[in-house]
C-alpha cells in the first residue's frame, strides 16, 4: 500500500469557530485542513440575522492567515421568531443554511426552537428559496434517556418533518446511532448526514477509560459499539448522503476539566488524520476522498474543490494543548498521543 494519499481538498460541513480571541486561535487550523467550512451560528448571542451573519463572516475572514485560501459558509440560528420574510434577506446575504437546535439540546441552544410547528411558515419559505436545514437531532424531553435522544428524534421529529417538507434539503448533523444511519440511508436525495471523526473512532467506553475523560464528551454523546459500526458502514458505503462534518467544538480546557464539563471535542487540528485512521481501520481508504471532498459540495449544490492535499502515513505526536484566546489553553482530542497520518 502506498504511504501517501492524494485527495481533492476537503471541506468541513460542520464546525464551531467561536468568536473574538477564541476565533483567532482556531480558524487557522480549519483553514489549513479545509477549503470551506460550514460555520455554526451558536455564538453568544446567536447569529439570527443576515447582517449578523455577514459581520461574522468578515470576522472569520480576518482570522484566516495570509495566503491561505479558505471560505466560510454562513448559517443562521433558527428560532421560534425567524420569519418567512427574513428568508429573502438571508438568501441575499449568501447564507446557505439555517440550524435547528431544539431548545436546551446542547451548548448555547437556549434560543433554540421550542416547538418545530412554530417554524413551519419559515421552513416553507426555506424550501422555496433552496436554503438547507441543518438539524441537531436530539429530543430534549427529560424523560428520554440521553443515549436514546437521537433515535427518538428520528421518530418524533424527523419523519413528520420530512413528510411535511419533502423538498427541503435537510442535513441530519453529527449522526451517532444505527437508527439515524438507517433513516438517512432509506431517505430520498433531499436528506443527508454529517459524521464526526470521534463517532467513527470511538464508542462510549472512551469516556470512561480508567476514569472520566472530559475531552471525549460531546453531544450527541458517543454511543455503543454497534452504533459506531453502523456509522463506519455508512461513511465508507460510498453513498453520497454521508459526508464529512467534524463538529470540532473548542472549549477552554478549564471548562472541560471542570465540575460541569462543556460538550465538544476539538478536532480541527488533526481532523483529516483522524478520519484517515478510521477509514484505514475499516479497509476503506479508497472511500475517504468522496466522503471528505465530493459528497458535501454535491449535496449543497456547490462546486467541488479542484486543488489537492496529501496525507502521509507517518507517526507523530499531536500537541497536548494549544493556545486558546488570551489566557486559556485548548486540548485537542488525542492531544499528547500518537497519530498515524499527517496532512502535509
Ligand atoms: O458537543 C457539542 N458541542 N455538540 C454541539 O451540538 C455543540 C457543540 C458546541 O458548540 O460546543
Ligand atoms: Zn456542532
From TrEMBL:
GO terms for biological process: 'de novo' pyrimidine nucleobase biosynthetic process; 'de novo' UMP biosynthetic process. Signal peptide: none annotated. PROSITE patterns: DIHYDROOROTASE_1, DIHYDROOROTASE_2. It holds the Pfam family Amidohydro_1. GO terms for cellular component: cytosol. The modification N6-carboxylysine is found at residue 99. Pathway: Pyrimidine metabolism; UMP biosynthesis via de novo pathway; (S)-dihydroorotate from bicarbonate: step 3/3. Its cofactor is Zn(2+). It catalyses: (S)-dihydroorotate + H2O = N-carbamoyl-L-aspartate + H(+). It comes from the Bacteria. Its EC number is 3.5.2.3. InterPro entries: Amidohydro-rel, DHOdimr, Dihydroorotase_CS, Metal_Hydrolase. Zn(2+) 2 binds at residues 99, 136, 174. The active site is at residue 247. GO terms for molecular function: dihydroorotase activity; zinc ion binding. Zn(2+) 1 binds at residues 14, 16, 99, 247. Gene3D superfamilies: Metal-dependent hydrolases. Catalyzes the reversible cyclization of carbamoyl aspartate to dihydroorotate. Homodimer. This is Dihydroorotase. It comes from Roseateles depolymerans.
Amino acid at each position: 500500500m502506498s504511504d501517501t494519499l492524494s485527495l481533492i481538498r476537503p471541506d468541513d460541513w460542520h464546525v464551531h469557530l467561536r468568536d473574538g480571541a477564541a476565533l483567532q486561535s482556531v480558524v487557522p487550523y480549519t483553514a489549513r485542513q479545509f477549503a470551506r467550512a460550514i460555520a455554526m451560528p451558536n455564538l453568544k448571542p446567536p447569529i439570527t440575522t443576515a447582517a449578523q451573519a455577514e459581520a461574522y463572516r468578515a470576522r472569520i475572514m480576518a482570522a484566516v492567515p495570509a495566503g491561505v485560501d479558505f471560505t466560510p459558509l454562513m448559517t443562521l440560528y433558527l428560532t421560534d421568531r425567524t420569519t418567512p420574510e427574513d428568508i429573502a434577506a438571508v438568501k441575499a446575504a449568501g447564507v446557505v443554511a439555517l440550524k435547528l437546535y431544539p431548545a436546551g439540546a446542547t451548548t448555547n441552544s437556549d434560543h433554540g426552537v421550542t416547538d418545530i410547528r412554530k417554524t413551519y411558515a419559515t421552513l416553507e419559505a426555506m424550501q422555496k428559496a433552496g436554503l438547507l436545514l441543518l438539524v441537531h437531532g436530539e429530543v430534549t424531553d427529560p424523560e428520554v434517556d440521553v443515549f436514546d435522544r437521537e433515535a427518538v428524534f428520528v421518530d418524533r421529529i424527523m419523519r413528520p418533518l420530512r413528510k411535511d417538507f419533502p423538498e427541503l434539503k435537510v442535513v441530519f448533523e453529527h449522526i451517532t446511532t444505527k437508527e439515524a444511519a438507517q433513516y438517512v440511508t432509506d431517505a430520498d436525495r433531499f436528506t443527508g448526514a454529517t459524521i464526526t471523526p470521534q463517532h467513527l473512532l470511538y464508542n462510549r467506553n472512551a469516556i470512561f477509560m480508567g476514569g472520566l475523560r472530559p475531552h471525549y464528551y460531546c453531544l450527541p454523546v458517543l454511543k455503543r459499539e454497534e452504533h459506531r459500526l453502523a456509522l463506519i458502514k455508512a461513511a465508507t458505503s460510498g453513498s453520497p448522503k454521508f459526508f464529512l462534518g467534524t463538529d470540532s467544538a473548542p472549549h477552554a480546557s478549564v471548562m472541560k476539566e471542570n465540575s460541569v464539563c462543556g460538550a465538544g471535542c476539538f478536532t480541527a487540528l488533526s481532523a483529516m488524520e483522524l478520519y484517515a485512521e478510521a477509514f484505514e481501520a475499516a479497509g476503506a481508504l479508497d472511500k475517504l476522498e468522496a466522503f471528505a471532498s465530493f459528497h458535501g459540495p454535491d449535496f449543497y449544490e456547490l462546486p467541488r474543490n479542484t486543488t489537492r492535499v496529501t496525507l502521509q502515513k507517518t507517526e507523530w505526536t499531536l500537541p497536548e494543548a494549544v493556545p486558546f484566546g488570551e489566557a486559556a489553553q485548548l486540548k485537542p482530542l488525542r492531544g499528547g498521543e500518537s497519530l498515524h497520518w499527517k496532512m502535509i
